[in-house]
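anyone seen this seq b4? input:
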Amino acid sequence: MEKAQKEASVAELTEKLSRAAALVVADYRGLDVPTVTSLRDKFRKVQCEYKIYKNTLFKLAIEGTRMAGLAPFLVGPTAVMLSYESPSAAAKVATEFSRDNNKFQVKAAYFEGTIYEGEHVKNLASLPGKDELRAMLLATLIAPAQSLVRTLAAGPTNFMYLLDAREKQLNEGSTQG
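predicted toks r here
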C-alpha cells in the first residue's frame, strides 16, 4: 500500500470514528466467508458497519484521541464494528454472535470516552436501544397528562356511581314497602 493510499485510509477512518456513537473491536480468527457475510448483514440491519482495518492504520487513526486506549486490543485479526445511531447496537449484535460462535471473540468497546473490555461490553450491550429510550421518554412525558385526565374524570364518574347507588337504594326501599 502506498503512502498516499495509507493516508487516505487513515483520513477516511478518522472521519468515520468522529461520527460513530460507539465501536466494538473483536477477533474474528477462524470465521469463514459465509459466516462473516451473514454477520455483516446483521450489523447492517441495525445501522452499524462491520469492517476490517489494518491494525497499524487503525492505531494511526485513534492516536491522540479518546479512543487511543483501544491500541492494546489491536493485536491479531481485528474486526471493527461502528455504530452511528444507537450506542448499544454494535455491542448487542457482537455479544449475541459471540455467544453462538466461539471463534468470534469481543475484545473491547468504546462509548462516551470510556473503553470497555470483556464482561463490561456485555453491560454496554444491555443498554436500551435508541427506540426503547424514545419510548421511555415518551411514556415519561405523557404520564402527567394521563394522570390529569384520570383525576378530572374521577369526580363525575364517582358522582355517577353515587347516583346509581342511591337509585338502587330507593328502588329496593319501594319494592319492600
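The CA atoms of residues 159 and 165 lie 10 Å apart. The two ends are 106 Å apart (CA to CA). kinda curious what u guys think
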